[in-house]
Amino acid sequence: MQLYASLFLLGLFNNVRGVTVTQAVPPGPTQHITLDIVNGPVSPDGFTRIGVLANGTFPGPPLVATKGQTLVVQVNNKLTNDTMRLSTSIDFDGVFQTSDNIFNEGSPFVTQCPFGPGESYTYTIPLDPAQAGSFWYHSQLSVQYADGLRGTLIIYDPDDPLQDLYDVDDASTVLTVADWWHNTSTSGLASYLQTQIIPVADDGLFNARGRYNGGPEVEYAAVPVTSGKRYRFRLINISARSDFVVSIDNHTMTVIEADGVEVHPHTVNVLDIFAGQRYSFIVHANQPVANYWINAQINGGNPAHNLNLNVRPRINRAPRAEPTTPMTEGPTGADALPLNEWELVPIVPMPAPEPDFNLTFNTFMPVGITEWEINNISYISPSVPTLVRVLNGEIQPDDFNVTENTFLFPANKTVQVTIIDAANEGHPFHLHGMNFWVVKSNGSDIINTVNPIRRDVDVTGTGTNILRFRTDKPGPWFFHCHIFYHFAVGLGSVIGAGFDEVGKIVHPTEAWERLCPNYDALPASEQ
Ligand SMILES: *[C@@H]1O[C@H](CO)[C@@H](O)[C@H](O)[C@H]1NC(C)=O
Ligand SMILES: *[C@@H]1O[C@H](CO)[C@@H](O)[C@H](O)[C@H]1NC(C)=O
Ligand SMILES: *[C@@H]1O[C@H](CO)[C@@H](O)[C@H](O)[C@H]1NC(C)=O
Ligand SMILES: *[C@@H]1O[C@H](CO)[C@@H](O)[C@H](O)[C@H]1NC(C)=O
Ligand SMILES: *[C@@H]1O[C@H](CO)[C@@H](O)[C@H](O)[C@H]1NC(C)=O
Ligand SMILES: *[C@@H]1O[C@H](CO)[C@@H](O)[C@H](O)[C@H]1NC(C)=O
Ligand SMILES: *[C@@H]1O[C@H](CO)[C@@H](O)[C@H](O)[C@H]1NC(C)=O
Ligand SMILES: *[C@@H]1O[C@H](CO)[C@@H](O)[C@H](O)[C@H]1NC(C)=O
Ligand SMILES: *[C@@H]1O[C@H](CO)[C@@H](O)[C@H](O)[C@H]1NC(C)=O
Ligand SMILES: *[C@@H]1O[C@H](CO)[C@@H](O)[C@H](O)[C@H]1NC(C)=O
Ligand SMILES: [Cu+2]
User: Fold this and answer.
1) What number is the average pLDDT over the span 360-381?
2) pTM check: above 0.85
3) Range(s) of the domain holding residue 32
């Protein structure tokens, strides 16, 4: 993040108190976006590697939209380097899909075939008129996004009911945390399959900057703020594996959004954010002018390896310099005011409906096999996407192999899923296309059906989670762990909602129909 660029922005908008500085979004009902997916050098931590990148950068170009716009995203696959996956498929994480648009949802072998080098696919996504907040996009194919294909998507609400609480909500307030590997995701996955150990990230990145053991002293990202102003930071965890514990020295964070759902302001001083999750929080720059550490302790993998890989950007308005105070891990013990998910209260109340069906997911990894299982079944992608087969009339439970972990429900029902994670692995479970109600969070015994937090990524643990969702949108919706190494070895399932309705409601385009024949014709090295 460039100190002077952001100061320039503040000057440019000539902010007067009471007027919120927001980011300009291309106007009109439809926004055309092009993303060229390329292999190219990238060096967020001073180590140059070849990545899989949207428009050649990591993260990819930040996308911005206004609530209710239609996004027409043309993705051109220009990949050439066969040491990494050459095909791709993009998921716009957390974005609701309309009930007829599941075919533009981006899940390989569930809702589409990936597309190979030299090919393009255009995702047309009419944004839900009621959905705003912090989102992101990433490759959904295998663990390809660990190679860099990830970026932010902010959907702004011009009538944000919480706007009075902050002064600045622009490009400078979008923050990302990411784990980063120097080696390719293909070699990482091969090593995982052999050893049952996810390759330890070389470092954690905050706003695409970080330092690795023995590497150069890359300048940490700086987040400039002006005294007296209140900033709406949008923190997006674009990790593939690791989680981070985030705090800002001498400042509190007032959480107002989780995964696109606004909540009553809730003040904490430390929060744990898992892969795929997003939070907006307000920071009031009310402390003496100085540089302060933003702490983002990376968890996951071998702690010894990660000991000095903490990402340490600064929040400042003083001359750019590293804070003189020592680095810490943030508030701990009695000083900590942690974010407890179950304390978040959506500002638009919505009771959790009573379940029509109950499911239990027992997550488990057998000893000596790199395989995650749900109820003893490890998910294996079918070769023909679920949606293709559903449109061909395969809508009975017997039409799906047991390894597809596909659970069928009638349309317009409520399903309750109880997730058991006896090993306390902290799986961030993510549902595509819609939110679930978190009736019970891990870490609390409270069962809240009155107005629980709704979100699309919830982290599990030994305490057991209870989630509810509706089957109002017909089609196969991916429901999987957002630690993509776990997902790649089977921690996935498909929620089959109202399959008998799909043929009546979902009418894919010819371009979509061509994806599978094209993919099947590719040599294995280009898939
Ligand atoms: C990506 O790059 C293409 C080609 O240069 C450009 O037309 C497009 O606007 C870029 N996309 C974004 C979102 O910046
Ligand atoms: C392809 O990627 C690999 C792995 O990052 C790298 O070592 C190699 O140099 C790349 N090849 C080219 C032609 O860039
Ligand atoms: C990177 O991947 C290559 C290819 O799988 C492997 O030979 C090499 O040992 C890996 N390097 C590291 C540092 O893990
Ligand atoms: C991001 O998610 C990963 C995986 O769940 C987690 O290890 C990491 O701590 C998260 N980052 C933050 C800042 O919470
Ligand atoms: C932050 O708070 C600590 C403890 O109250 C204090 O010692 C320190 O000087 C403060 N930092 C700055 C930059 O003001
Ligand atoms: C689902 O489980 C709940 C207990 O959590 C129970 O109250 C309810 O009756 C069950 N519903 C069905 C349809 O089995
Ligand atoms: C599932 O696996 C566990 C652990 O191996 C075993 O105890 C249990 O009996 C299995 N359940 C079924 C239904 O096969
Ligand atoms: C179907 O499921 C069986 C286990 O019941 C598994 O051995 C087989 O590989 C699966 N077939 C496919 C195509 O996934
Ligand atoms: C589900 O609800 C939608 C919207 O109310 C309605 O159009 C549709 O017919 C319903 N489907 C079934 C199978 O009840
Ligand atoms: C889940 O909650 C339990 C307490 O019920 C706690 O011990 C555990 O660490 C939590 N797991 C995660 C991943 O946060
Ligand atoms: Cu997991």
Assistant:
1) 96
2) yes
3) 21-157
